[in-house]
Design brief:
Low-confidence stretches of chain B: none
Number of helices of chain B: 12
Largest sheet of chain B: 5 strands, mixed
Order of helices and strands of chain A: HHHHHHHHHHHHHEEEEEEEEEHH
Radius of gyration of chain B: 21 Å
Strand content of chain A: 5-15%
Number of strands of chain A: 9
Helix content of chain B: 25-40%
Shape of chain B: flat
Mean pLDDT of chain B: 87
Oligomer: heterodimer
Strand content of chain B: 25-35%
Strand order of the largest sheet of chain B: 3-2-1-9-10
Radius of gyration of chain A: 49 Å
Distance between the termini of chain B: 20 Å
Structural class of chain A: alpha+beta
Number of strands of chain B: 18
Distance between the termini of chain A: 108 Å
């Protein structure tokens, strides 16, 4: 019963701050003036509190302070009154700066955070790409490409040696003698097409020259002979040197460090792009001919092309190489 | 520098009320996240010349005050609102900053706003700044305590009206008149909660011939301390070492005795407030007389201190909501405002 009474009392207090204060003051037989002089408040403040004219106070902090002091004088519990005050939605005064400043970007701002995450994400992505380019390709692609060229100290030129002399495409590349053999004359036009299929060329060209085979007659001979035989490159090293050789189809033929005394026999589709890291220690034979690359040596490194398209037209390898050198 | 900035992304901006008695930390968007005594217990390993290690900080260390064995020393690294022991303060701050950033993978590197007494010297301010930076802060701002207290109390500091605030801390009282975001008059007096305790200890020794510790004196102050004669007299039973007999004795103190004991520090506070009112420009003084003065800080919880000041000065005296946390909350609001309006609004350092 008592609890219920208290509950009601509480409800009443919550609904009305001013009347409750006035009631308590009258019950304590105090006039507004007496209260004001006791608390050293202006009488106006007491009236404003009792009439609930809260908007006239400078800030909520003052209202709460006055209310607390007044309630203490009247012997009222301050907490319910303060709670009731919250119904009036009194907010703390805004902090206003007298110096108008534009908003400064801070690291805590959401866009700044997003930008930071973005930059870090981008950097990580770039790192991953670089890693893939640097190691990913060489790790996965190195295997399949290398087996073609590496034939150390075992020149396998023997089967293709005759072709160098007789076969038309190879003959084109060799500088001194432009042999006007009959197959060349016949197959002058289809040369570009046949460059795509080099392997067939080696097998098919030989029979045509050696022995006129009965089974594959003229048509076959016309289609296949023009295909160029793979260009053959023989490198002998007196010193260690880095070697890079790329074929005309863009495939890497060789990429490694050649050791002193090593001989490399490579073959690929002309033109061959060659890079020698230490050119002084190398000797080159291209299709069985010595090739002098001294003009391409720059600070010990030699870069040149063997059997370029110009050479194919003019049939003079050194001339084209010289041209390239001058261009370079 | 870059790494600090990166770590800062994962840290909350915090405002620290580095008080003589208590340190409070307000984290942006979280409110008061730490309220611990500014006490550090140090363990000496391998004798007095040996290594020093932090044994406890905060509440745990405060329980050790006056109860430590030879190799542990519980100390308060701040005296009169300023740093007395630089290294220990740095360690304490480091511990507190870490505590409010717990369960973080990276070492925190927040922006920190520290509240300093307005009477502190440049050297003392520099020490606080260095100490906070050493504790891992990315940027350190200093704000004067009364300004932070006024903001925290919700006073309209931006308005062209005088607001008077009296912050009674553990080591100092700060009285200031503020208008247009600036301090017009400020004074810092090295009287505070600690002086109240000391006065109680001295009173008991003089009148009862008994020695009591700081913790007991503080308990007496909290329970029956008052600043103005009350209608009811309350009592407390305490134990102390009788100086003549050399053995612990218990005795009873009443609130009137404590009021008498506190007369000296209280009169110091009253005279500081009177001086402030004398020195305030008349327009602002009129505002203060009309609106009243606001009390903040732990000392505002001393019973009837508002009554005492009101009777002595004749102006209304109000106690702020939650006076203990006003300074830290005000610092937090200042931090938030700094983000919107730039760092130079409060003439921060």
């Amino acid at each position: 019963m008592k609890a219920a009474g208290e509950q009601e009392n509480m409800e009443e207090t919550i609904n009305s701050v001013g009347p409750k204060l006035r009631e308590a003051r009258i019950a304590a037989k105090l006039s507004v003036g007496e209260v004001a002089s006791e608390l050293h408040f202006g009488e106006q403040i007491i009236h404003q509190l009792e009439d609930e004219e809260f908007e006239k106070f400078p800030a909520p902090a003052f209202i709460r302070g006055y209310l607390r002091t007044y309630a203490k004088l009247l012997g009222l519990p301050a907490a319910p009154l303060l709670k009731a005050l919250e119904q009036h939605h009194l907010h703390a005064p805004e902090l206003i700066s007298d110096i108008a400043k534009p908003h400064q970007a801070k690291s805590t701002d959401a866009p700044m955070r997003m930008a930071t995450y973005g930059i870090f994400g981008g950097l990580l992505l770039l790192l991953a790409l670089w890693w893939h380019n640097e190691y990913g390709i060489s790790l996965f692609d190195y295997g399949p490409k290398t087996p073609v060229p590496i034939t150390n100290n075992a020149p396998i030129i023997a089967p293709t040696q005759p072709a160098n002399v007789a076969a038309p495409p190879v003959a084109e590349v060799i500088p001194p003698p432009p042999p006007p053999s009959t197959p060349l004359a016949e197959t002058g036009q289809p040369v570009p097409d046949s460059t795509v299929v080099p392997e067939n060329a080696a097998t098919t060209v030989a029979p045509v020259i050696d022995t006129p085979q009965p089974e594959p007659p003229a048509p076959v001979a016309e289609a296949n002979p023009p295909s160029p035989q793979p260009a053959k490159l023989s490198l002998t090293f007196a010193h260690d040197s880095w070697v890079e050789v790329y074929g005309g189809d863009g495939n890497r033929i060789y990429l490694d460090l050649a050791r002193e005394g090593e001989t490399l026999n490579l073959e690929g589709i002309a033109p061959l792009d060659v890079l020698l890291g230490y050119a002084q220690g190398a000797r080159i034979k291209y299709n069985g001919q010595d090739f002098d690359f001294k003009t391409f040596v720059h600070q010990g490194v030699a870069r040149f092309q063997l059997g370029g398209p110009e050479t194919a037209d003019t049939d003079v390898v050194p001339a084209t190489l010289d041209n390239e050198a001058t261009q370079n | 520098m870059f790494l600090k900035g990166f770590r800062g992304i994962f840290s909350n901006d915090i405002s620290i009320d580095l008080g003589t008695a208590n340190t409070l930390i307000y984290a942006r968007g979280k409110g008061i996240v730490l309220n611990e005594p500014s006490v550090v217990a140090i363990r000496y390993e391998g004798g007095p010349g040996g290594n020093k290690r932090i044994a406890a900080v905060g509440h745990e260390a405060k329980q050790m005050l006056g109860r430590t064995p030879g190799h542990i020393k519980a100390i308060r690294p701040l005296k009169d609102g300023v740093i007395a022991d630089f290294t220990v303060t740095e360690k304490m701050l480091q511990y507190f900053i870490h505590k409010v950033h717990e369960n973080r993978f990276l070492r925190p590197s927040p922006r920190v706003l520290v509240c300093v007494p307005c009477g502190s010297t440049q050297v003392e301010r520099r020490a606080i700044q260095e100490s906070a930076a050493g504790a891992g802060a990315r940027e350190v701002y200093l704000i004067e305590e009364p300004m932070a207290a006024a903001i925290g109390a919700g006073m309209p500091v931006s308005e062209p009206h005088g607001s008077m605030v009296l912050d009674i801390g553990g080591g100092t009282i700060e009285v200031a008149v503020i208008s247009l975001n600036g301090v017009v008059y400020s004074e810092s007096v090295r009287i505070g909660g600690d002086r109240f305790d000391e006065s109680i200890i001295n009173y008991v020794r003089r009148n009862y011939g008994t020695l009591i510790g700081e913790a007991t004196a503080e308990r007496i102050k909290h329970e029956i301390g008052s600043a103005y004669p009350a209608n009811e007299v309350s009592e407390i039973e305490v134990r102390g070492r009788n100086l003549a007999e050399g053995i612990p004795r218990s005795f009873v103190l009443n609130s009137n005795e404590i009021l008498e004991a506190l007369q000296e520090p209280l009169s110091g506070i009253v005279s500081a407030v009177r001086t402030a009112l004398e020195q305030t420009p008349p327009e602002l003084g009129a505002d203060v007389a009309e609106r009243g003065m606001v009390l903040t800080g732990g000392g505002a919880l001393l019973r009837d201190i508002d009554r005492l000041l009101s009777e002595e000065t004749g102006i209304p005296v109000l106690i702020a909501d939650d006076p203990l946390t006003c300074v830290a909350r005000g610092g937090g609001r200042a931090l938030e405002m700094m983000d919107d309006k730039g760092t130079d609004i409060f003439s921060l350092e």
